[in-house]
């Protein structure tokens, strides 16, 4: 018989006929329930029947002669012996999924001869890929496939592909041992009976679920925020990749010795170490990840010999307390594993449903394979007469997780990272490898070292983040003072215009002389170094000369915001020790009459004065600026002359110089004014001042920019957004626009640059304590497609570190506190030694240096820029979930028609609610926004209230005025769907959901999220089946997960999509049942259809 065929021929192997008679009643041997892991895998299949997740494949490379008929006979014999290999899963028409064991179900077997092909190895890989992508129909087809491919006369590949729902790793070694034993014997040798898998399922059904629920609820109580890993993209697509590495021999030995000395397992050490890595990557002391357990109950007779899927994935919580050593933490994890053992059988989906995070509880798993499966498989058949010579075993497995870890013990431990390369990069895997090895090395060397002191950075990573990313040193007048530099500039440019204000202008000589007269008067009042002088003026020329005059005395100025209440103003004056206030004569009435005031406007035209140089230094205090404090009282930040000079000398984000014209937009009491005033005046440039009425009006501001020839300006992000909405072309005359103070809006930047293609937009970040800017970033086109715009790199003569809670440096991608160092760090807080000690700390990386701990969270990006994540104290709790408001705002900014938005937490009665305040271009349907958001955010992160504003209220400093936002109880709002009579579809859905939950229909509201009222993933299948029967529609299960409330699901069922779902689902069902593998073959293809 000839089996020749051209490679170009496709052969369709139909499975429809093969499966048609398999599930006849007379062919059914047994029916029983599913194990916890089986339920999870079945759910994954039901939601996406075309997914290849949980498809596993072994490729045995065999040398010598192989008899295909003997191999097929051995595979059939194996199926006859183990009922799990003859199992299908029924779930489409039942409330509770069942597995059905068939009496006869021979596995699929294929033989292909590739000896005459030019690239047989490539064709084997192509065949394996096709087998995996083909997937399995769990309800209708054979779930085990064997294929024998001949590459050369003495070279074969035996490909064994199966669905993980049948078997776990513990079962594979004895299963393959039997398979190759059958092949070796070639006869039906009597075998010892194997206990059926059904025994295990029946054992499961006897367990007390109440005890398990109580245990897992208590175990996970208080866990509020899921951990993440550094992802390069958010995607639904999957591309399998593996990163494998081996621990050094010495480290493996040390870990084994550590485990033995502490009476714990090496598995516990790996779990603890990975937990600490996650903690440090997420800036938290509390993490949860999936832990794969064997699931074989020791009390069940014959359990060790059973073949099937026993493993289960459980949440493993690693919670570190301050003061915990690594050894202490290992002991805690060891005890937790021991305590959870009686409840290892409980399904993950049930555990998730009883947790606060529901399906977001965990996103990756870790498995420690105590059995050396690969080693056992390589030895199979080799010691038996007539056996096979197995030279190599290649294993492929894919879960429904984008990332999972498998640790293989041995003389040298081997770690496998399996990941979705569409989501995670190879570089991220390599970084995680370095972090894990670095931590394990340090912990094994000194297990009693505090967890906070353990570093993740390898020598390579440490050099990168501490040195390369912070190589910012350059020359500048670090030993000068601001007033001395100004004198030098004024002497070199006496007649050059230094300041423009409305229709007035002032030369450098005029400002120098005017400020001299102010300094003389202040000195006459006994003021000099170590004194503070108040400055109570708006944005005007008196502000500039007041600052200069005070600095020339050697004293420091205290900007007093004119918008302050009298009580707040009095507090700052007293706290700062202000004795004299520089103001204008027309403003004197706003200050207490008991204060000594100097009217600087009256010194404008008075006689000239000679002022001797003050005896102050670069490290002397230049100003004291108050910011809001957590205690309710403002706190004063002490900034030196060197701090200011570091800010304005050597920046690469703006071209300072005599040609530069800068518009001041910041209030004197806002630290942006430091950059604006001294950036212009210490370089011979021109400073432009405009009134508040010009600044907040787009038309007037645009005219002012053109009239004064302004080249650069700073705006807060909210003010920029508002002006951009009014007239995005208003920035066309600028060269540089620095925006900051809040997260930048990509939409508004794009809008402005479309009207001004040459405009350089710079993201400026920094706390007042580090003198205005710590980092800056020139926004690129690529940034406008990213999730967030980076805050950039440190300024010259500055440093930025991303540190963990123990102030250890973190590698690229890990989230930590942004700590800033270098010459911008101020002296501390006025009269607040405890807060100063807490926030201003010694720089552990620069001898004698100081750091400011910002309280902001960020992470290094691979290019050395910093990604700002949010505030450590801006996370709020909503219904038990920890929420970052900035993440919600970024999602809202991408909605159609939205102009500006801020999200706040408001207390309504006893509950906290998320409220979105927005301005819009046109009338919007908030219900449509909710649909869009539901695909991007968890339900608990979608605001309860959407409140439309005419304009976003701003403070004088251009930031959103949170106190001016209206109360949602009285504002225009779109809240929860009001009570009304349900239509027939809504009533049916509600009744079915209530019956599954065991509650009254009235307990379920139209907008209640299914998952939040107790419906779990497996309940969805039951509800889906009942809805199909009720409406006689083949409703896709995916629709249930996309439309997760009665109102939304009813709308779907009543829509055209719902009407078309029956035909679409029926078509998909037919394809699923009849689809085959398309096999390209060259020489020999033989398929046994016996018993089909």
TrEMBL record:
Domain Carrier, by residue range, is 980-1057
The biological process GO terms on file are: amino acid activation for nonribosomal peptide biosynthetic process; lipid biosynthetic process; secondary metabolite biosynthetic process
Show the PROSITE patterns listed in the entry.
Answer: AMP_BINDING, CARRIER
What is the protein named?
Carrier domain-containing protein
Keywords of the record, alphabetical order, are:
Phosphopantetheine, Phosphoprotein
Pfam family of the protein (one): AMP-binding
Origin, by domain of life? Bacteria
């Amino acid at each position: 018989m000839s089996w020749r065929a051209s490679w170009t021929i496709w052969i369709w192997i139909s499975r429809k006929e093969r499966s048609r008679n398999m599930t006849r009643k007379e062919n059914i041997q047994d029916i029983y329930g599913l194990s916890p892991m089986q339920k999870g895998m079945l759910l994954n299949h039901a939601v996406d029947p075309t997914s290849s997740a949980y498809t596993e494949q072994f490729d045995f490379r065999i040398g010598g002669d192989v008899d295909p008929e003997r191999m097929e006979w051995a595979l059939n014999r194996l199926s006859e012996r183990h009922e799990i290999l003859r199992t299908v899963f029924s779930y489409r028409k039942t409330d509770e999924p069942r597995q059905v064991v068939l009496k006869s179900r021979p596995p699929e077997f294929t033989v292909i001869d590739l000896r005459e092909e030019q690239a047989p190895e490539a064709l084997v890989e192509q065949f394996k890929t096709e087998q995996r992508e083909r997937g399995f129909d769990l309800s209708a087809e054979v779930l085990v496939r064997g294929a024998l491919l001949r590459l050369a006369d003495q070279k074969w590949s035996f490909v064994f592909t199966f669905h993980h729902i049948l078997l776990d790793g513990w079962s594979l070694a004895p299963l393959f041992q039997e398979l190759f034993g059958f092949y070796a014997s070639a006869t039906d040798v009597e075998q010892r009976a194997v206990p059926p898998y059904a025994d295990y399922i029946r054992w499961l059904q006897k367990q007390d679920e109440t005890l398990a629920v109580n245990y897992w609820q208590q175990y996970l109580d208080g866990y509020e925020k899921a951990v993440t890993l550094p992802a390069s993209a958010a995607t639904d697509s999957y591309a399998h990749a593996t990163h494998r590495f081996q621990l050094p021999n010495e480290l493996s030995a040390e870990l084994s010795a550590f485990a033995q000395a502490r009476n714990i397992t090496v598995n516990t050490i790996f779990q603890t170490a990975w937990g600490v890595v996650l903690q440090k990557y997420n800036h938290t002391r509390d993490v949860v990840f999936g832990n794969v357990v064997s699931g074989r109950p020791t009390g069940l007779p014959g359990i060790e010999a059973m073949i099937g899927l026993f493993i289960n994935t459980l949440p493993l919580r690693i919670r570190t307390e301050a003061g915990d050593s690594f050894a202490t933490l290992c002991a805690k994890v060891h005890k937790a594993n021991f305590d959870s053992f009686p409840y290892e059988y409980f399904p993950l989906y049930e555990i998730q449903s009883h947790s606060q995070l529901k399906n977001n509880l965990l996103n990756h798993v870790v498995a420690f394979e105590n059995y050396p499966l690969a080693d056992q498989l390589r030895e199979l058949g080799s010691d038996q007469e007539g056996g096979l010579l197995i030279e190599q075993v290649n294993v492929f497995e894919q879960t429904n997780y984008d990332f999972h870890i498998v640790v293989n013990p041995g003389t040298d431990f081997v770690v496998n990272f399996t990941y979705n390369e569409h989501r995670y990069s190879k570089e991220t895997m390599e970084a995680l490898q370095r972090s894990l090895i670095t931590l394990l090395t340090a912990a094994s060397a000194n297990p009693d070292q505090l967890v906070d002191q353990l570093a993740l950075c390898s020598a390579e990573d440490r050099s990168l983040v501490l040195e390369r990313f912070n190589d910012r040193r350059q020359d500048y007048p670090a030993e000068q003072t601001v007033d001395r530099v100004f004198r030098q500039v004024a002497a070199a440019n006496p007649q050059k215009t230094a300041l423009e204000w409305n229709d007035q202008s002032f030369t450098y000589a005029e400002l120098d002389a005017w400020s001299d007269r102010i300094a003389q008067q202040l000195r006459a009042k006994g003021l000099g170094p170590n004194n503070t002088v108040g400055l109570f003026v708006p944005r005007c020329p008196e502000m500039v000369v007041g600052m200069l005059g005070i600095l020339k005395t050697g004293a420091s100025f205290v900007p007093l915001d004119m918008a302050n209440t009298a009580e707040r103003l009095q507090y700052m004056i007293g706290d700062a020790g202000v004795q004299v206030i520089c103001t204008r004569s027309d403003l004197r009435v706003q200050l207490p009459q008991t204060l000594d005031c100097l009217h600087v406007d009256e010194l404008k035209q008075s006689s000239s004065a000679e002022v001797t140089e003050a005896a102050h230094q670069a490290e002397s205090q230049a100003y004291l600026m108050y910011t809001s404090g957590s205690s309710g009282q403002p706190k004063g930040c002490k900034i030196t002359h060197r701090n200011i000079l570091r800010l304005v000398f050597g920046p690469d984000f703006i071209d300072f110089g005599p040609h530069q014209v800068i518009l001041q937009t910041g209030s004197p009491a806002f630290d942006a004014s430091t950059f604006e005033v001294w950036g212009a005046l210490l370089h011979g440039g021109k400073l432009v001042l405009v009134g508040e009425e010009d600044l907040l009006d787009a038309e007037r501001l645009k005219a002012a920019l053109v009239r004064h020839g302004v080249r650069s300006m700073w705006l807060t992000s909210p003010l920029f957004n508002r002006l951009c909405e009014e007239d995005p072309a208003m920035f066309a005359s600028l060269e540089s626009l620095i925006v900051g103070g809040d997260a930048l809006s990509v939409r508004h930047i794009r809008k402005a640059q479309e009207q001004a293609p040459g405009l350089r937009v710079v993201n400026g970040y920094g706390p007042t304590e580090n003198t205005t800017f710590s980092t800056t970033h020139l926004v690129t086109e690529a940034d406008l497609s990213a999730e967030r715009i980076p805050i950039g790199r440190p300024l010259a003569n500055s440093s930025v570190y991303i540190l963990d809670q123990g102030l250890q440096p973190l590698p690229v991608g890990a989230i930590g506190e942004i700590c800033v160092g270098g010459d911008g760090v101020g002296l501390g807080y006025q009269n607040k030694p405890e807060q100063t000690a807490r926030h201003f700390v010694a720089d552990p990386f620069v001898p004698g240096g100081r750091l400011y701990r910002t309280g902001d969270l960020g992470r290094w990006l691979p290019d050395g820029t910093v990604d700002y994540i949010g505030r450590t104290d801006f996370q709020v709790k909503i219904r038990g979930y920890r929420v970052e408001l900035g993440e919600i705002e970024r999602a809202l900014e991408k909605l159609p028609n939205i102009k500006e938005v801020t999200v706040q937490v408001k207390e309504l009665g006893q509950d906290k609610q998320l409220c979105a305040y927005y301005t819009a271009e046109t009338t919007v349907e908030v219900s449509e926004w909710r649909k869009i958001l539901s695909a991007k955010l968890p339900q608990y992160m979608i605001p309860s209230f959407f409140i439309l504003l005419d304009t976003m209220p701003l403070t004088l400093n251009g930031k959103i005025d949170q106190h001016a936002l209206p109360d949602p109880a009285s504002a225009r709002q779109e809240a929860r769907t009001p009570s009304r009579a349900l239509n027939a579809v809504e009533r049916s859905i509600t009744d079915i959901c209530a019956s599954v939950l065991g509650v009254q229909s009235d307990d379920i509201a139209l907008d209640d999220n299914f998952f939040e009222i107790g419906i779990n993933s497996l309940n969805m299948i039951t509800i889906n089946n009942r809805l199909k029967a009720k409406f006689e529609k083949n409703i896709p299960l995916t629709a249930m997960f996309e439309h997760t409330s009665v109102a939304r699901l009813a709308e779907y069922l009543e829509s055209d999509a719902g009407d078309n779902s029956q035909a679409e689902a029926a078509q998909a069902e037919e394809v699923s049942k009849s689809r085959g593998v398309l096999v390209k073959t060259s020489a020999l293809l033989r398929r046994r259809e016996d018993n089909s």
